[in-house]
Design a protein that fits this description.
Layout lengths: L4 H12 L8 H23 L7 H19 L4 H14 L1 H19 L2 H10 L7 H16 L2 H18 L4 H18 L4 H10 L3 H28 L10 H10 L8 H11 L4 H19 L1 H7 L7 H13 L2 E2 L5 H4 L3 E2 L6 H19 L2 H12 L3 H18 L3 H18 L4 H13 L9 H10 L3 H4 L4 H15 L10 H9 L1
Antiparallel strand pairs: 1-2
Helix pairs in contact: 2-3, 2-19, 3-18, 4-18, 5-10, 5-14, 5-16, 6-7, 6-12, 7-8, 7-9, 7-11, 8-9, 8-23, 9-11, 10-21, 10-22, 11-22, 11-25, 13-14, 15-16, 18-21, 19-21, 20-21, 20-22, 20-25, 21-22, 22-25
């Protein structure tokens, strides 16, 4: 039988690098060390908070180049590396589409007044005795609605710090409550970039990830609330929180109505009914657009500077909110940043990061580096708890060394993906652990972009709020407790077994 030229080429590659296991462990670690070193310099010494705007993405490509050089040394063909990068990028196509729709949904939910309505009612939860617990709840609501802990703390968070000061509550306590609520919302919101990034790295889907993450996140936030209620009952407060200016600014800029909650309620219903995430997000976007035209016609017209609401002006206003940056001005300067959305374009930096991370991960896959590292980790972490602990430690190490929460998700996500699969663990185990240890702990490190940003915005040092950011430091412990006692650890089911369960 005649062998095709292509088959001969593949066979020769396998002989040169059988099963991609000929690479040594130290050689496999070279690209990782190079990447961490470059990222550390890029974030810590040059770009700081602005590193995600492009420089970190290029550093990931440089890391891929280092991995390619190692691969060439071990006689892995360049075409094989490119093919693996392509497969990696292809595997994230669903996540990229979801990110784009998340940006679109955020835009229509802003101009429709859905997000402002959530904020309006959330601010009215303030009470001096339960002020700290109320801060957690308010910031959680706003962060779920906006998908951004940074925006939450930079707007409502600053206002709450001021209110806390007038009540005689320490800024560290208030900041800890603000960040606990903000990062709870950041984790649980489908609008959050990190919440989309984690399942993309682990190979899962968005809503399965959120549902599974609730198992550890809900107990953590409940404990956090209990602690803040106890603290609130044991500290002396003075005065009444003044929020009338903020409430008036929101009610003037938007037509606030509880009827607007119908739209998120319908989206939640679709999620509960296990409708595909892309379909649920598209439905939420279109419903938000319809709500904007009905409830906020003035805002829709103002986006395009139209004098009357016509089909053209409504179409253009909604499309602008969906695709590009949109800002709704209010009489409250501190709220203006909260009422802005980047639309689909606002998600491009995260998509850019994913594509470049896939270039690094794909090259590492092709040269056998990730397999080698995973095998080494599995030989050390002989138990499921050991694997979870290794993931947590890696996320913390990346947050400290690379100073960026996104990279604390991306790099361990690619490194541990195969290891979890080899242990028959569902991908949501990995994505949840990445968020429980990567997303939330970044704010606890002073030189991390999140720690530096939050302390700068709130005017409170990391050392002052560290102990009171209860949700943030408790989250990795919670995920380890679940792993240690084998609580709700989801395994991969064989197709036949999964079918039997579905039939039931």
């Amino acid at each position: 039988m005649t062998t095709k030229p292509e088959e001969t080429k593949d066979t020769s590659e396998n002989l040169e690098n059988p099963n991609n296991h000929s690479i040594s462990l130290w050689a496999a670690l070279i690209p990782v060390f190079a990447l961490v070193g470059m990222l550390f310099y890029n974030v810590f010494f040059v770009y700081g908070d602005d590193a995600l705007s492009g420089s970190n993405q290029f550093v990931l490509l440089l890391g891929a180049a280092v991995a390619a050089v190692v691969g060439v040394y071990y006689k892995v063909s360049f075409s094989k590396m490119i093919d693996e990068v392509g497969e990696n990028i292809k595997s994230t196509s669903g996540a990229i589409l979801i990110l784009l729709l998340v940006g679109a949904l955020a835009g229509t939910w802003l101009i429709s007044g859905i997000i402002p309505t959530m904020i309006y009612y959330g601010l009215q939860l303030l009470n001096p005795t339960i002020f700290l617990a109320a801060c957690v709840v308010i910031c959680a609501i706003i962060s779920v609605a906006t998908g951004s802990s940074w925006t939450t703390s930079a707007t409502v968070g600053i206002a709450l710090i001021g209110i806390g000061n007038t009540l005689g509550i320490s800024a560290g306590m208030t900041a800890g409550a603000v960040l606990s609520g903000a990062y709870f919302g950041d984790k649980m919101s489908p609008l959050s970039d990190t919440t989309n990034l984690a399942p993309a790295m682990a190979g899962g889907d968005l809503f399965t990830h959120i549902k599974y993450m609730a198992l550890t996140t809900v107990p953590t936030i409940i404990i956090t609330l209990i602690v803040f209620v106890i603290l609130g009952l044991n500290i002396n407060t003075s005065g009444i929180p003044e929020i009338s200016d903020q409430l008036e600014a929101i009610s003037i800029a938007f037509n606030i109505s509880p009827w607007l909650f119908i739209v998120p309620a319908l989206v939640i219903l679709l999620i509960v009914k296990k409708v595909a995430p892309l379909v649920a997000l598209l439905a939420g976007t279109l419903l938000g657009a319809l709500a904007a035209i009905i409830a906020q016609p003035e805002i829709v017209m103002s986006i395009t500077n139209a004098s009357e609401l016509t089909f053209k002006s409504a179409y253009q206003g909604v499309m602008n909110a969906i695709t590009v940056n949109t800002q709704v001005e209010t009489s409250s300067a501190e709220l203006n940043d909260l009422f802005s959305s980047g639309g689909m374009s606002g998600m491009l930096n995260t998509i850019w990061l994913i594509v470049c991370a896939m270039a690094f991960g794909g090259t590492m896959d092709a040269i056998g580096a990730l397999t080698k590292i995973s095998d080494a980790l599995l030989s050390i972490a002989k138990t499921i708890f050991g694997l979870f602990a290794s993931t947590v430690a890696s996320c913390l190490a990346l947050n400290i060394a690379a100073s960026d929460q996104y990279l604390a998700i991306v790099v361990p996500g690619k490194m541990f993906k195969q290891a979890y699969k080899d242990r028959n663990l569902a991908p949501e185990n990995l994505s949840r652990t990445l968020e429980d240890s990567g997303t939330v702990t970044s704010v606890l490190i002073p030189w991390n972009t999140c720690g530096a940003y939050q302390s700068g915005v709130l005017g409170v040092g990391v050392g002052e709020y560290f102990a009171f950011a209860i949700f943030n430091w408790l989250s990795p412990f919670m995920t380890l407790i679940f792993a240690a006692f084998n609580i709700k650890i989801k395994m991969i089911l064989a197709k036949s077994q999964s079918a039997r369960i579905d039939d039931k």
